[in-house]
Amino acid sequence: MLVREPWVADRFYPASPAACREEAERYLSGPFGDVAELPEHPLGGVVPHAGWAFSGAVAGEVFAYLRAHARPQTLVITGTVHVPEVIYPATMTMGAWRTPVGDLEIDCEFAWNLVQMGAAEDNPAGQRREHSLEVPLPLAALAFPGVRLVPLMVPVTVSGVETGRAVAEVARALGRRVLLVASTDLTHYGPNYQFMPAGVGTEALRWVKEENDRAMLDAIARLDAESLVRMVQQHKNACGPAATACVLAAARELGATRAHVLTYTTSHDVMPRGEPVNFVGYVGAIF
Predict the structure, then answer these.
(1) E-state strands within the chain
(2) Selection from 50, 53, 59, 70 nearest residue 30 by Cα
(3) Rounded CA gap, 285 and 38, in Å?
(4) Which residues contact 116 (CB under 8 A, 6 or more apart)?
């Protein structure tokens, strides 16, 4: 069987099964915000993919709520592309993704339908070194034992919207109960990322949180899939706009009307190191 082995275990999250399970369960223990504002029957959410020390609690809060309120057969997880091998949406049509806490088997029928429609290509080699999908998956594996997986890398060479519509079409055609999860980080700010229009220090952190990332949070809340790639081209306020647009478009097609931001933070807030210079934004959302 084709198995996609972990690539960033022991760098982004623990490679040891026991340590990975212990840390993941801690993140999955909640809390998950004001439940009065959250959908009773969620379709999915948005999570970050930085190292767990920075973003694990944000992703865990999303998966904790989804675990309590969703019973999916198939998890469709979309991620941005940090590798050169993928210039068109890419999936796997057979095999499994391995995590330290267990394997996630591919929903072959679902993935193959996407390929047959031309919405994605079967490109397991392109997924071998991509961490945007890998980092949240141990949390998903613990939250939803036995769920089937459709991993979908969505590069910014596409808008993501048509891919999302295809995902919804396949879900309806197959009668699948799907969970839609997008993996993206937000503004990468500072000299390390060659992006610092507001200088450095507290004013830079305020600008990112209250203006640059706020625009992305508002678009996610509106399920405004069409604006994301263009917005990021102008403002550099996410690394996975097409992956996020894909999931928002699919969620809309399946009945979602808005998203709810559960939590937002930055790497500086999680782990301050003097004045804010280099930092990244993280969002957890539910729709």
Answers:
(1) 3-4, 44-47, 74-79, 90-91, 96-99, 102-105, 121-122, 148-153, 178-183, 188-189, 260-266, 279-286
(2) 59
(3) 10
(4) none
**What distance lies between CA 36 and its chain's CA centroid?**
24
| CA–CA distances in Å: residue 257 to residues 57, 131, 172, 199, 252 | 26, 30, 18, 37, 6
Beta bridge pairs of residue 3: 96
Q: 99 near 6, Cβ under 8 Å?
A: yes
- Residue 261 CB-density burial (10 A; 0-12 exposed, 13-18 middle, 19+ buried): middle
pTM above 0.90, yes or no: yes
| Residue 178: strand pairing partners | 74
Instruction: Report pLDDT digits (tens) over 23-68.
Output: 999 999 976 656 667 888 999 999 999 999 999 999 999 999 999 9
How far, in Å, are 116, 151, 171, 277 from residue 107 at the CA level?
Answer: 14, 9, 11, 42
pLDDT tens-digit readout, 116-170:
999 999 999 999 999 999 999 999 999 999 999 999 999 999 999 999 999 999 9
- Residue 90 in contact with residue 104, Cβ under 8 Å? no
Which one-letter DSSP state was computed for residue 24? H
Each residue of 112-122: b (16+ CB within 10 Å) or e?
bbbbeeebbbb
